[in-house]
Amino acid sequence: MIQQQVFSCDGASADATVTIHAPAKLNLSLAVLDRRADGYHDIESLMVPVTLHDTLHVAPTTEPGISLRVRWGGRLARIDPAYAGDVPAGPGNLVVRAAEALAREAGVDRGLQIDLIKQIPAGAGLGGGSSDAAAVLQAAADAWQIDWTVERLAALGATLGSDIPWFFAGGPATVSGRGEAVRQVEGIPPLPAVIVKPAVSLSTAAVYQACRPDPARQGDADRLAATLRRGLRAAIPLMHNALESPARGLAPEVDRLLSDLRRAGGLHPLLTGSGSACFAITRTVVEARHLAARMEALGWPAVFPVRLCA
């Protein structure tokens, strides 16, 4: 669900600035099936984009090199920076690495100026960094006039991060393997949800290291997708995240957040990804607003009412 719009002051497409939205994602299910010899894990997950998104303005430059400016937007610009997480503005940012990889593989000798406006908190399991990287691959290809297919861009993304190929799916999709095998899913309803991010962030590697694989969960993502098409009530028992237990053990704040979501009336609250953000799906927008207000009243400032993007 990457959306883009191209603006050009002089009408010359080679000098156009590409503005692109990079959505957050929720894992409605996440099974860890096995540990792999390459250090990764075989997983299976139903992932859905949501309306919370980052925005990237990408402009080509005549000189080589990638320049990145990072700003906070939306709710993250108004609350304690601890809830936003750590986002480097230099070569350590996945956005810069993705743009550099595309320039190298496509033989481009021009540069990019990237203005990244973050509304997705980092270290939250919402896929913000991977989404930004996928978005910049698409935007840079347009800005540099590289005629690559989406599949080729996604394959390059897979060399940089396991979640990146999923963001080229354009909507809900299941992932398997270490995340590189993506299959689109139709019929997921655009349900409201509330996401809450605690001040603590979690290391993906540490959470996976503490997880115990369960191969019996294979097929859960497909079963959940099929059940969701028939309605939320029957689907809720199938929603799960194998990383939730280790995340709660590593960060007591996550355990408290999940308890508060239940206390505030959230339906089957879950961790998303490896955390630390948690969410609850609601039946109506009104329910989502009430749940968000209750969570803020309980002292959680990083609260994001969203809608699933079907």
Description:
- This protein is of the alpha+beta class and 310 residues long.
- It contains nine helices and twelve strands.
- Strands 1, 2, 3, 4, 5, 6, 7 and 9 form an eight-stranded mixed beta sheet that branches. A four-stranded antiparallel beta sheet has the order 10-11-8-12, covered by helices on one side.
- A hairpin with a 6-residue loop joins strand 10 and strand 11.
- Helix 1 packs parallel to helix 2, helix 2 crosses helix 3 and helix 7 packs across helix 8.
- It is globular.
- The protein starts with a strand and ends with a strand.
Instruction: Kindly state the number of beta strands.
Output: 12
How would you spell out the order of helices and strands?
EEEEHEHHEEEHHHEHHEEHE
Uncertain spans? 3-13
- Oligomer class: single chain
Helix content: 25-40%
Strand content: 25-35%
Q: How many strands, what sense, and barrel or not for the largest sheet?
A: 8 strands, mixed
Shape: globular
Distance linking N and C termini: 9 Å
Mean pLDDT, rounded to whole units? 94
Radius of gyration: 19 Å
* Number of H/I helices: 9
Structural class, from helix and strand content?
Answer: alpha+beta
